[in-house]
Amino acid sequence: MDQGSIKPIEAVLENQALEVRKIEIEDLRSVLLRGIEDFQAMPTHAIFLAVLYGVVGMLLVVLTAGYDLLPIAFPLIAGFTLLGPFAALGMYELSRRRELGEDISRYHMFEVINSQARLPILMLGAILFALFIVWIEVAFVIYGHTLGPVMAEGGSFVGSLFGTGEGWTMMIIGNAIGALFAVLVFTISVVSFPLLLDRHVSLPTAVATSVAAVVRNPLPMALWGAIVAGSLAVGSVPFFLGLAIVMPVLGHATWHLYKTMVVRPNA
């Protein structure tokens, strides 16, 4: 991003008295450790297991209802990560309360619905959901133009996926475009949701701040994105059990990442 495109972002931040600091790789280790400490102080794995398996159960019902949906299973599961920043709102709230020395009972994670910022939070959540729907539609199109015709002739989906040129083409194109969706969501939301909970700012300001955080810290934020993606992948095996720990820890850590980067000038 060139200097000309950064200036509008800086103007928004100055108007809201916000400053985005440059961080180092070592800061990522620090926020992860603080995320783990928060999780140990207020474990929420039981809640995540209940919600997670409710979603996975519904997904399995849909998938077993018709074989034609099997090719979209991976894009559908991967696409749920686009909604991760919204799903982590409860973790941000608990970390915020713990930081302020307030009560950290687990039911407080649902109090975000009473936040003064609930409207912009819901609006940003709706944007992420819209991107999720667009991604699923794009995945269907990619499948239809690559592996779809092969599958129409019969054969094993897994065998066709790894044993044909069309299958490999679908995986390469799908993963490349999926990565673009992930980068977009990460860029506009990594700081936005915690900022909306923490301070009275507008949605454009929150998004501009998130973009500025990524632009000004390209290497640390790229590494953070890789840590998030890798952790979610590892946590998905076996049977998504690890996500009950991985997701809360990442949520708490993201709150501390936000607090490390976004400050008021001269703070």
Query: Uncertain segments of ≥5 residues (pLDDT<50)?
Result: none
Mean pLDDT: 83
Helical content stands at over 70%
Continuous helix count: 14
Strand content: under 5%
Number of strand elements:
2
Order of strands in the sheet with most strands: 1-2
Cα separation of the termini: 27 Å
Describe the protein's architecture and organization.
The mean pLDDT is 83. The chain has 267 residues and is mainly α. Helix 6 (89-100) packs across helix 14 and helix 9 (157-163) packs across helix 10. It has a two-stranded antiparallel sheet with strand order 1-2. 74% of the residues lie in helices and 1% in strands. The two termini are 27 Å apart. It has helices at 3-15, 25-41, 45-65, 73-79, 84-87, 89-100, 118-145, 148-152, 157-163, 165-189, 192-198, 203-216, 218-235, 243-261, and strands spanning 19-20, 262-263.
Note the topology.
Blueprint: H1 3-15, E1 19-20, H2 25-41, H3 45-65, H4 73-79, H5 84-87, H6 89-100, H7 118-145, H8 148-152, H9 157-163, H10 165-189, H11 192-198, H12 203-216, H13 218-235, H14 243-261, E2 262-263
Antiparallel strand pairs: 1-2
